[in-house]
Amino acid sequence: MRIFVCIKQVPDSAQIRVHPVTNTIMRQGVPTIINPYDLFGLEEALRLRDRFGGEVTVMTMGPPMASDSLRKALTYGADRAVLLTDRFFAGSDTLATSYALANLIQKASENWGQPDIVFCGKQTIDGDTAQVGPGIARRLGLTQLTYVSSIDEIDPSHGTITVRRRADHGVQVLQSRLPAMITMMEGSNEIRRGRIEDALRAASAEVVQWNAAAAGITDLGHCGLRGSPTVVKKVFAPPSREEKATLVGEGAANPAAVANDLITQIFARQPVLEGDLMHAAARH
Amino acid sequence: MKQNHFDAIVVGAGPSGNAAAYTLAQRGLNVLQIERGEYAGSKNVQGAILYADALEKIIPDFRDEAPLERHIVEQRVWMMDDAGHTGMHHRSDDYNEDKPNRYTILRAQFDKWFSRCVKEAGATVIYETTVTSLMRDASGWVVGVHTDRNGEGITADVVILAEGVNGLVGRTSGLREELKPENVALAVKEMHFLPQEVIDARFNLKGNEGVVIEAMGTITEGMVGTAFLYTNRESISVGIGCMVSDFTDVGQATPHGLLDRFKAHPSIRALLEGSEIKEYAAHLIPEGGYRAIPELVGNGWLVVGDAGHFVNAVHREGSNLAMTTGRLAAETVADIILSGGSCSRHNLAAYVEAVKDSFVMKDMKKYKDIHGFLKKGRHVVDLYPRLMNRAAQTWFRVDGVDKKSKESTIVREAWRARGIGGLMGDAFKLMRAWR
């Protein structure tokens, strides 16, 4: 099986700091990580490769330092890494990003063959749009299987795939044809710890690096800021919430009475909640 | 097979490991460095002061690229009692030189840079991989390492253990004893963020100038230890450390309790005012001194840096000893391998000789008795700072008492506290230990 996995290098949102004085995001010193949602796709890709053979190519568009994330993906066991990097891509929104990545995938297909599956992250933790995967699928005419919680069956020879997809009110079992673009749900698997051989190979492997021209992208009007209709109007730190948690009835002689009193107060404000809870309690 | 054999494996990517791996790679050896952290520096904690000399001998033009915070132009040494401090300040414009001698650094950034240099020099570096044990042949000769990743072990002509104070491999492989509480200090530190201008104004600094404060006294509650405050560009590192054995045997305080008290001390509080704490870290420091240095070489292995207990606690030097021992080990190994020799204990002993010839062992040896002196004479960390502050106050207060009486009061108080025998004994023992 030939599988492409699109990843993105993102700042580790758990470690982002807001400058105490200027209130701006301090990027310096914030570690970068592979977008966590992408890892579910990568692991699924590695599992399919281990089962059916073939190869996993991991790719990204980003600044030169994004090669760190690609190298890390190699450490997990990916076979090849490709970085699309060019100043023309700076400032890309999801439209421009999916344009660039779709072209990257096409170019990679010319080099290493058409993929059976393209995995993308469900969304990124820094943009949160969940648009790039579907954008790629649309541009390349791939079947879209988003929010997949598991791949139940796959038949490479017939080019069919059956997946479970999380929908608004339940789980859909979908059968479709390959090639497909799949985004995996979080928790659907757990990224492996690469073998020592993978770690060694990754440390000295060459990350394939293409600029726009090398990836065959000539229409730069679709790229970067120029190709991005989305405009960031304003960036602000959300105000901290007004209400604060308070400690009530500390050291009270009768905590149960304090709790009872509180619940009565809450129910007085939330009669529907009371009804629901009473109803639920009655059923048990 | 070929891919899994290296000339040398360096375990750890701290100052000693990076110095060793860089030097080996520069000499053209095929070297593998294995770091357990997610990146070099992710596990490393230090105050941190970088002493230029040791790094200059490895990367002469490091100043052009290394992430440095401030160069030190002022050193303050404080003896503290509960109300204040008495101290010595040394500041000189001479330190504003083309190639400053000491810098404050942020280890997470600095180590990353150093690690990048190692890779650019040609070493293979893998992260998030823990060396679990040494691979030995039938005769016990070390021939490689096993890691916590699935797969085969990796072989090499020599393994350089730069695994830090708490190094697992050396201990589990029986090269080194379990750490003794009386040979290791536990230090905690916090990073306090403040705008650069505020730090400049508070410490009378301009440009990249920086200040270092080292303090001892009642702040450690009778335990043997010191506290520090270092100015970085936009933050202040503040910390305190004491011998682990003292935390259990002498003091009642917890490390962070001591740090909270130090930060609230009238001499320190105002320096940190309005800052925001962003990081909290703790680390062990091997402070057992000369007598705690373990076996340094064997067939197929050598030990460098903190793992070799190379810390000069009196002068707060460690990373420079680490880099120097790392470099010396690498030079020894390179000489042996490039001349077709084997990395036997006998051949590797040249490393031990090189360390002995350097400032590293000379300094370690000079202070070999300080450790024992402090262990027996804990009063020096508590009583003498108290006396000193009392004496200073008696001396400087103008209160109608004549100077001669003041002098007698000062002498009498010292006398009463320690007795003539005690005072002379302490002086004698300290002098001996200092020599």
Describe, in short, the structure shown:
The complex is a heterodimer of chains A (about 280) and B (about 425). By secondary structure, chain A is α/β, with parallel strands linked by helices.
Question: Can you give a write-up of this model?
Answer:
The complex is a heterodimer of chains A (284) and B (435). Chain A is an alpha/beta fold and 284 residues long. Chain A contains seven helices and 13 strands. In chain A, helix 2 runs antiparallel to helix 5, helix 3 crosses helix 4 and helix 6 (255-269) packs across helix 7 (271-283). Chain A has helices at 36-52, 67-76, 94-112, 132-140, 196-204, 255-269, 271-283, and strands at 2-6, 9-11, 17-18, 25-26, 32-34, 55-61, 80-84, 117-121, 143-155, 160-167, 170-177, 180-184, 208-210. In chain A, strand 6 (55-61), helix 2 (67-76) and strand 7 form a beta-alpha-beta unit. Chain A has two domains: 2-222, HUPs (Rossmann fold); 245-284, no CATH class. Chain A is globular. Chain B has three domains: 2-68 and 105-177 and 294-357, FAD/NAD(P)-binding domain (3-Layer(bba) Sandwich); 182-286, D-Amino Acid Oxidase, Chain A, domain 2, CATH 3.30.9.90; 370-434, no CATH class. Chain B has 14 helices and 17 strands. In chain B, the strands form two sheets. In chain B, strands 3, 4, 5, 6, 11, 12, 13, 14 and 15 form a nine-stranded mixed beta sheet that branches. In chain B, strands 1, 2, 7, 8, 9, 10, 16 and 17 form an eight-stranded mixed beta sheet that branches. In chain B, helix 1 (15-26) packs parallel to helix 3, helix 1 packs parallel to helix 9 and helix 9 crosses helix 10 (345-357). Chain B is globular. Chain B starts with a strand and ends with a helix.
